[in-house]
């Protein structure tokens, strides 16, 4: 049985997540701008920095639509920051991979990213920051488990 407190907590969690999303987008814009990237470009490049992924794989990893990733990937390829590779697992679904130029753009974010990470850790404390990340991860997993079928 759902209690009023359960509903209040769900609402508070959602509102806090919405605020955090806005705060992280503002920080991401601040970090990405000097390297010539947009937040959307950084998001897609970041998803494939360690290994190429399909557009659908990037969408799942980042929690955004496949169509949005496809549009962004096409722009990144057009600008020479990413390229498409053949996908041995699927003939039609190409893999998105970083180019050397994409790696340079991503590495340009590193120093400011490290400074802000250090500042955040100093404000919260490293253990509390790790606990917050763990709680957010657990919350995300719980939301994934919800039955959202009509």
From TrEMBL:
- Membrane-crossing residue ranges in chain numbering: none
Q: Which GO terms describe its biological process?
A: response to stress
Give the matching PANTHER family.
MARR FAMILY REGULATORY PROTEIN, TRANSCRIPTIONAL REGULATOR, MARR FAMILY
Q: Which GO terms describe its molecular function?
A: DNA-binding transcription factor activity
Q: Tell me which Gene3D superfamilies the record gives.
A: Winged helix-like DNA-binding domain superfamily/Winged helix DNA-binding domain
Protein name in the entry: MarR family transcriptional regulator
**Pfam families (alphabetical):** MarR_2 (PF12802)
Name the lineage: Bacteria, Bacillati, Actinomycetota, Actinomycetes, Propionibacteriales
| Domain HTH marR-type, first and last residues per copy | 6-141
Organism equals Kribbella qitaiheensis
């Amino acid at each position: 049985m759902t209690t009023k407190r359960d509903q209040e907590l769900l609402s508070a969690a959602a509102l806090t997540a919405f605020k955090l999303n806005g705060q992280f987008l503002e920080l991401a814009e601040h970090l990405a701008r000097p390297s010539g990237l947009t937040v959307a470009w950084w998001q897609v490049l970041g998803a494939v920095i360690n290994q190429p992924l399909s557009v659908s794989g990037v969408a799942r990893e980042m929690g955004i639509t496949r169509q949005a990733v496809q549009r962004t990937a096409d722009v990144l390829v057009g600008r020479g920051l990413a390229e498409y590779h053949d996908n041995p697992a699927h003939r039609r679904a190409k893999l998105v991979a970083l180019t050397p130029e994409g790696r340079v753009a991503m590495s340009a974010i590193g120093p400011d990213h490290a400074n802000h990470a250090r500042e955040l850790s100093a404000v919260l404390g490293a253990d509390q920051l790790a606990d917050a990340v763990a709680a957010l991860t657990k919350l995300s997993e719980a939301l994934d488990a919800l039955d959202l079928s009509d």
